[in-house]
Structures are given as C-alpha cells and as structure tokens.
Design brief:
Length: about 180
C-alpha cells in the first residue's frame, strides 16, 4: 500500500548526499522521526504496524505505518483534524548519482463526504503551502543532523564491508517482525 504520485495531493522531493540505506537507517529511528515529523513521539523501533503520535501545535495525530519496505519506502496512515478522515503519505528513497532522493507523496483524504469537502477546502486554503514548507524545513533539519553526525564526507567513502546475502535476508526478516 503506497500513495500513487498521480493521485497525490502533493509531492515533495529532497536530495541527500547519502545513499538510500544510510538515509533509511536514520529516518526510521525514533529520535530522527521527531525531526522529520516536525515534532513527533515514538517509542522503540519503527516498522509496519507501528503507531506513533505526531504533534503540530496543540493537535496530536495518530500515525500508523501501513507499508514497510526497508531501504526503499514506507507508507503512513494518519488521522485528520476532522472525525473519520484519514490520509496516507509515502516516503520513497531512490538512489541518485550523488546520494539519494526522498520523495514524500501525500494522498487524498478518505472518509465521509461532508468531512472530505471541509478537509479539502481547508487544505486548499491553508495547509498545502504550510505543509510543503514545513516538510521542506524538516528535510533540511534532518540533513543538517545527518551531516553533523556523519561528518561532511559521505559515508560511502568509508571502507565497505562484505555482507553475505543470507545475513541481509535474516536481518530484513528480523526488522519486519518488529
């Protein structure tokens, strides 16, 4: 389950000077999710089925990870301010020649028709630009944190380690078990 770009309310792309694997390692850690979610709260590892809170001002939103593809993408379902209205957003990581591109795609809301009309109107009038600017600032803070923690040189320039395919398979299986 992921948000199709053709059906998105909006899409935001951001390029990082690190590989998708490095960005994934950081973006899925609770202490870094707080940076990416503007303000967020989560206990433990994030994987499919994880539920955490995202706070924007005085509003708290429940987020549930509904799709989990390590080092590639994940999709989150979150609740709107209006009752019974939910949204999906997907972050997809893809390699570029100089690192990786994170593509954040926000789907259209689902729920009762009257609430959808109100939610879409509020989105068009107020939240689209605010959300885009907020998430762009989040990506910038996240990149600054990565640079501070990893140093200016890209981690790929460090010596690589050979990992057997069965170790990778077992590690991925373990991460999916939560």
């Amino acid at each position: 389950m992921s948000v199709c770009p053709k059906e998105a309310m909006f899409t935001l792309e951001y390029d990082f000077p690190y590989s998708p694997a490095v960005v994934w390692d950081y973006i899925t850690k609770p202490e870094y999710r707080a940076i990416m979610n503007v303000i967020g709260k989560s206990d433990g590892c994030i994987s499919q089925g994880t539920t955490y809170q995202c706070a924007h001002g005085n509003n708290l939103y429940l987020n549930t990870v509904v799709d989990w593809r390590p080092t590639e993408q994940y999709t989150v379902q979150f609740s709107s301010m209006l009752p019974k209205v939910i949204w999906l957003w997907t972050i997809k990581l893809s390699p570029t020649g100089e690192g990786s591109r994170a593509t954040m795609t926000f789907g259209r809301p689902n729920g009762p028709a009257i609430y959808l009309i109100l939610d879409k109107l509020g989105w068009r009038l107020f939240r689209k630009r605010t959300a885009r600017n907020s998430f762009l600032a989040s990506f910038q803070r996240f990149e600054a944190t990565l640079k501070q923690e990893l140093g200016q040189s890209a981690p790929e320039s460090r010596a690589s380690v050979e990992i057997a395919p069965d170790q990778v398979r077992d590690a991925v299986a373990e991460s999916l078990r939560g």
